[in-house]
Amino acid sequence: MYAQILTCTREIHHPIFSPRQLAGSPFLHPLVRAALRYVSDQDSKAVARDLKKIYTSATAIEAEQALEEFAQAWDAKYPTISKMWRAKWVDIVTLFDYPPAIRKAIYTTNAIESVNSVIRKFTRNRKIYPNEESALKLIYMAIREASQRWTMPVRHWKEALNHFAILFESRLPELTSK
Known about the structure:
This protein is mainly α.
């Protein structure tokens, strides 16, 4: 029973289109934030702009070239950043397996992180659930409460949703069966 509850809570923390499923963990926002921790305030905008060139590249090869350019420009001052990005490179290049619309939806929004943090906040104090249904109800209530605060739509979502519907057809049966 305890193993089922533990499995249930692990699976609950993985939303339908999680970056963990798309490209590993941690992903872009935490990686960019971690990189900027090492940067002085006066350099942060320039470093963030140069990092953006990496993950907005059209192909994995261009991204790798952008990472090399980043390293040449910033390694003298901040060598930890390029080392950190190279260590997570396997996760980053997985992003380029997807169409540009999905990539843009992933790297321009914190929505997925927001959903995960809401779920973690609600489930943090409860480690044991009587059954899977009770855990799912708690998560439903957490998302419902949090969604009242979400007012900004995800940019370019409709374009990305079209690609999601094709790539993840089994997860969107109500969209693809009509």
